[in-house]
Predict the 3D structure of the following.
Amino acid sequence: MDRRNFLVSAICSTAAFLGTNFFSCGTSDKNETATKQPNILLIVSDDTGWADVGYHNSEIKTPVIDKLAREGVEFDQFYVSPVCSPTRASLLTGRPPSRFGILGPIAMRSALALPKDTPTLAALLKNAGYSTAITGKWHLGLRPDVGPNEYGFGYSYGYLHGQIDQYTHYYKNGDQSWHRNGEFINEEGHATDLITDEAIRFMKDLRDKTKPFFLYVPYSVPHYPLQEEDKWTKPYDGIIDNESRRLFAASMTHMDDSIGRLLAALKELNIEENTLVIYISDNGGQENWTPTFEYDGKFAANDRLGNNLPLRDWKGTLYEGGIRVPACMYWPGRLEKQKISVPLTVCDIYPTLAFLAGIAVPENAAVEGDNIWSVVSGGSIPDNRVFYWRTENQQAFRKGDWKLVHNGATPQEGENELFNIAEDPYETRNLAEGNPSKLSKLIEELKKQFSMDAPISE
């Protein structure tokens, strides 16, 4: 892997951790004060597949995301969970979501939620003096009493559920979801625009400008149902013939344009060089959607949505297409461009951001991710890292180049597949039969991880 030197060296990163003024920068706003702690803008798209961004040679136009990857740090093996709620749990806790009993999307009127006493990333940053906000999708509790304000977000806006009508903002079963600080509201406009507008309003008007901010912007697209105006779909006429894929592409380009508006706001506020921007997708792309009861039959079926090629399979599975996603960091004037090819995980974001903010991660957080700033700033990371995933019907475990995929509800039942990701990144050859010793060791480690999970409520 090519690890060229960054302008932010590991020495300077350590200095930041020790409380120097390395991260200080000026601003044109007279109410803004210089701070050694960086602002953090964390952007998450919903169901963006590996081949759904321009910089992965997609037919979809995403010039802003491409800029973030091209001029920032591109992560080539960045892993998340295969569906929405679990990834969001890991993002805010630095732990596998199965530790909290979250194996899949929190849906319908489920009472499942992230435990309220969880020491989240947002709470950690808020307690350290950050202004914290979320504008967009929550999906870690479907009621206001388990909404974002209960988990460290000083300001919240968006929707509680996993999917919504982009214009009415109601959930698929008709439940109200759109809110501001836990109070349900009705507003007009496309969800992409409303989420972006509120994020900009937070940066410009709502936050305490004497403090750094942590702004989490999880978009609703390109998750179905998809509704886009002609100005977003017409550029794909004659380029993408399939109507569903064209609508999907339009939603991506609409979101990409909105991310450009967020970056423009940073520049306008003269805080661009003191703001770390992170972009990830929450899981791999979904192949198609056939509605049943959802939205009272308002939407037609989508026969083609995301694209994960050349990776194997789709959202919902533990093959690479379900869990390996586009991801990058961008920090103009602080990070030099490079492509990092070592495996990293969404669990790493929590300890990394805590490090950059100069905050010690509390022991009770039990964070299992690693501070990856050593990699981002040109250093190395231990070779013996392990990665663990679990759904209702699969588990997977990766150590080094070897990845075990177990098809079964528990490690004791089902079938095993073994892949060498370095030699076979597209998981075309099951090596289990020819490597019994390696398989046995990984199964034992998988069982150990499984035993650490929370009991699953019926």
The first helix runs from residue 10 to 17. The CA atoms of residues 124 and 152 lie 7 Å apart. Residues 1-35 have pLDDT under 50 and may be disordered. The chain has two domains: 10-21+36-376, 393-451.
